[in-house]
């Protein structure tokens, strides 16, 4: 199996940080987010969904900077 990105050792478990899991999480949140009306509400919905995945990316960057995750 070829790695798709930097993982945390929990490949296949919900909430992993590989790109495919982040995409699935965003798609799931988009499909199950409460229906909103109006332009401002929909823009806020979009950024709230993206914010859920941003936390994972920030943690990965911190780990990479401190040398916890060793890349290529």
In short:
The protein has 72 residues and is mostly helical. Helix content is 58%, strand content 0%.
Write up this protein.
This protein has a domain at 19-66. The two termini are 17 Å apart. The protein is flat, with a radius of gyration of 15 Å. Helix 1 (19-32) packs antiparallel against helix 2. 3% of the residues are buried. It is mostly helical. The model has no long low-confidence stretch (mean pLDDT 74). It contains two helices and no strands. It has helices at 19-32, 39-66. Helices cover 58% and strands 0% of the residues.
Describe the protein's topology.
Elements: H1 19-32, H2 39-66
Helix pairs in contact: 1-2
Domain Choloylglycine hydrolase/NAAA C-terminal: 2-55
Protein name: Linear amide C-N hydrolases, choloylglycine hydrolase family
InterPro entries: CBAH/NAAA_C (IPR029132), Ntn_hydrolases_N (IPR029055)
